[in-house]
Amino acid sequence: MKHFDELRSIPSIALRALPAWRHRLRRRILMLPRGASLEDQRMMKRAMELAQAAGDRGEVPVGAVIYRAGVILSEASNDREASGDPTGHAEVVALRLAAIANGGWRLNECSMAVTLEPCPMCAGALVNARISRLLYGARDPKAGAVDTLYDLCRDPRLNHRMEVIGGLFAAQCGSLLTNFFRARRIAKRTNRPNVA
Fold first, then answer.
1. How far apart are CA 137 and CA 77, in angstroms?
2. Global pTM?
């Protein structure tokens, strides 16, 4: 009987594991920013596929998808190297294609999912195109114009503002860029002639 009482006083394995299980679940829930729907997640995954394809072509791996009510209007990835166009960012290329598909430049009620926080040029183009929602993956500490360095998409001085949801699949989007630039640095080191 004494042995049985000792067992009852020891918390069960299930009860000890419960807080860890709750913590893992809480982490999964917190990884998705507030306001991001399943449709948004699907579009961001497509943008990550486009970014990976751009990286495979030697472009900086950034992908963008513009959609309205679950229908993709356009999708693009960086093409600056291939086109020789300094405005060949994924966001700008996607905006051009969406305007053609839409039949006009006003992209009201459209959302954009992009793997990297837009730069000032792209954020300005998003404002001018009247995009309603912007979802981005990784922050850009050097040129981010949505949350990091500037807040162009929500600036009350401008004639249009949009809803911004940042950090959607941030780790995966960031690793695409990190791996790309790491491989580029390694390739540059191996191609450097030895000076002795």
1. 14
2. 0.80
